[in-house]
Amino acid sequence: MTEVRVPTLGESVTEATVATWFKKPGDAVAVDEMLCELETDKVTVEVPAPAAGTLAEIIAAEGETVGVDALLAVISEGAAAAAPAPKQETGAQAAPQSNEVKMTDVMVPTLGESVAEATVSTWFKKVGDTVAQDEMLCELETDKVSVEVPAPCAGVLTEIVAPEGTTVDASAKLAVIAEGASAGAAAPAAAAAPAAAAPAASGAKDVENAPSANKLMAEKGIDPASVQGSGKDGRIMKEDVMAAAAKPAVSIAPAPAAAPRGPVNADDAAREERVKMTRLRATIARRLKDAQNTAAMLTTYNEVDMTEVMALRNTYKDAFEKKHGVRMGFMSFFTKACCHALKEVPEVNAEIDGGDIVYKHYVHMGVAAGTPTGLVVPVIRDADQMSFADIEKAIAEKGKRARDGKLSMAEMQGGTFTISNGGVYGSLMSSPILNPPQSGILGMHKIQDRPMVINGEIKIRPMMYLALSYDHRIVDGKGAVTFLVRVKEALEDPRRLLMDL
């Protein structure tokens, strides 16, 4: 007789609840075959068979609370040889023994410290497809970026756990791959996957949830259908209920304060297309509205004569590109000019934290970039310490990554000030919205020839309107105007940047 006891649960864990028995008395068991599942306050623990034989007796039934090293069951080793043998005669039992196929879970990759969930936007493979290691399986969409999920191994995709449109947390399982299998070998498993998923889709769930999970759902009034189970066969565990209770009621919210639609006649409705708002677009809507609701936002304007910058750029652009391998644009001039102005007006580079004002003695410049899926703001860290060439290289590289959806969360966090260039789309003037918790954002616009009075004479000059939106709670009008004037001065005489004037 071999005793099955509670394994070590952790230094601070002294007891657990028997959640599920996967064997019953009289069943044959193999060494390391899972017998039962224990549930602690934080994790689920599987208990394997310490020896082969027959499960003679279950001491601790489901729902019982047991301490560390408590006796769970007894295995009779004498019947081990006889019990498994008949099971080898059936094709269903023999196949896994002969194929030696290892099943590998595809998990959600690291999303970032502040990202708790994502939505499965696209599957590029279907069940039964052969996949190569590192081949892209699917794409996840978070609040800000798209994340590609590569195959952790080569084999056959046997199951898709999270179909398109599913919201998954940072530790969720997405799919299962039969590692090393060929398409033919994994076909039975692949075919079985849709069949296994059918009861869940129809709501006919025959898996008993953990007792503590049922109790917690009853206490909090949570519908079991709204909880995603992480236990065996989708069994809902206590931690699943706690995670569901911590989530907001709606994971993807519509644009804030959106008024309901009025009545639409049938002819118009037939010519409309309704598309669910993406997580990125919903986040943009929410953050922009939050900025308007939270900050005392005000915008001040000025205009800049771009003659000197354009002349300098035309003179040195070929030599600049030849030496540095990147084109000289206008953004490096504006970035340098802003960094220069922020030194004189530091409150524009600050933020409010509760009852404090946090002044930043560095500039992490956010550069707004339009992408096919929405606006993102990659951050150029320590832009005040960079050369023109370094800034141009960083902007080009991050702009390309933004358009390709390759930006990580870390690359869009920590900005202290933002520049938005609506001029690339032809905008003549606009009022940019703050990027919280920042206190300032500069809006660039289209360069347009206009008649200007220069030394008493009317001349045609390439002019650009500038707009600074700022948080009036910590930036006074004098500071905002001074900032714009310093930017204007630096651009109209770029030599001031070199002389730090």
From TrEMBL:
Write down the top EC class of this protein.
transferase
UniProt lists the family membership as follows: Belongs to the 2-oxoacid dehydrogenase family.
Against Pfam families, the record matches this protein to:
2-oxoacid_dh, Biotin_lipoyl, E3_binding
Q: Which cofactor does it need?
A: (R)-lipoate
Instruction: State the protein's name.
Output: Dihydrolipoyllysine-residue succinyltransferase component of 2-oxoglutarate dehydrogenase complex
Its source organism is Pseudothioclava arenosa
Q: Per the database record, which ranges form the Lipoyl-binding domain?
A: 1-76, 98-178
Question: The Peripheral subunit-binding (PSBD) domain covers which part of the protein?
Answer: 208-245
Give the EC number(s) under which this enzyme is classified.
2.3.1.61
Could you describe the subunit structure of this protein? Forms a 24-polypeptide structural core with octahedral symmetry. Part of the 2-oxoglutarate dehydrogenase (OGDH) complex composed of E1 (2-oxoglutarate dehydrogenase), E2 (dihydrolipoamide succinyltransferase) and E3 (dihydrolipoamide dehydrogenase); the complex contains multiple copies of the three enzymatic components (E1, E2 and E3).
